Amino acid sequence: MRRPTCKETVEQQYEESVSRINELTTINANIVTSKAKLEQELSTLAGDYEEVTKELRVSDERYQRVQTELKHTVEILHEEQERIVKIEAIKKSLEIEVKNLSVRLEEVEANAIVGDSRLGARTRRREAPTLRNREDSSQERAHNQGGDDPVNLYKRQLQEQEGMSQQSVTRVRRFQRELEAAEDRADTAESNLTLIRAKHRSFVTTSSVPGSQVYLVQETRSDL
Predict the structure, then answer these.
(1) Which residue from 175, 154, 20 is spatially nearest to 102, judged by alpha carbons?
(2) DSSP-assigned letter for residue 200
(3) For the residues of 125-182, what is the DSSP string, one character each?
(4) Which pTM does this prediction carry?
(5) Could you tell me the end-to-end alpha-carbon distance of the chain, in angstroms, rounded to an integer?
(6) Where does the record place Basic and acidic residues bias (predicted)?
(7) Cα angle, residue 49 at apex, residues 46 and 51 outer, rounded to 5°
(8) What's the DSSP call for residue 124?
(9) Any idea which of 44-48, 138-142, 164-168 has the lowest mean pLDDT?
(10) Where are the alpha helices (DSSP H) in the chain?
């Protein structure tokens, strides 16, 4: 059997080396391609991560803002509810006041009418005998007593009666003004209550932040 020469051995080693180099070159090219692809995917993932992080930050800021607005709106709602309770109490009190003033006004009017009638009757009963007794000497009394004759006395009594009637009328008018003022206050309270009820209405909704639920109060304004 012939032994390979040195030249043949070298040539064989050379061919093996070339084959190995080609194989390694192919592997290296594949590695470079894979690296470029991985770098591109990594860049895409980094961009996606940055976008998701930004959206998460925006969502968190929106959530915090909604929470703050919710707290403020709930405080406003509580204040308005307290105002409604106070206005309803004021309205009820004013209604009672109006009713009481109406009763007092009717009593004053009735007392004024009865008082005028009684005063007129008493005056007529008191003056009738006096006038009869003084008819014969009316001229002499008028000459001697001047302003103390029955006519002047009757005039004074009429003036007193008119003064009392005027006082009664004044009281009636005062109670009428108080009644009108109470009715105005009641109307104002009713208007404020209606305005508040029309201004504030609430509903429940779900927040846009995943996994969380919040209660929002919607404020609707209506021109009344």
Answers:
(1) 175
(2) B
(3) HHHHHHHHHHSTTHHHHHHHHGGGSHHHHHHHHHHHHHHHHHHHHHHHHHHHHHHHHH
(4) 0.39
(5) 120
(6) 126-143
(7) 110
(8) H
(9) 138-142
(10) 6-134, 138-145, 150-199
Cβ atoms 83, 196 nearer than 8 A? yes
Collect all residues with Cβ–Cβ distance below 8 Å to 213 and sequence separation of at least 6.
Answer: 206, 207
Q: Are the C-beta atoms of residues 198 and 222 closer than 8 Å to each other?
A: yes
Written as six digits, the tokens of 88 are 């309803």
pLDDT average, residue stretch 209-217: 42
Cα–Cα dist 163/117, whole Å: 14
How far apart CA 62 and CA 95 sit, in angstroms, is: 48
Exposure string of 79-90, with b = 16+ CB inside 10 Å and e = fewer, is eeeeeeeebeeb
29: exposed, middle or buried (Cβ count in 10 Å: 0-12, 13-18, 19+): exposed
Q: Name the pLDDT band for 147 (thresholds 50, 70, 90).
A: very low
Distance CA 224, CA 221 (A): 9
Tokens standing for 16? Answer: 């093996």
Please check whether residue 203 is in contact with residue 216, taking contact to mean a CB–CB distance below 8 angstroms.
Answer: yes
Q: Please tell me the predicted confidence (pLDDT) of residue 211.
A: 43
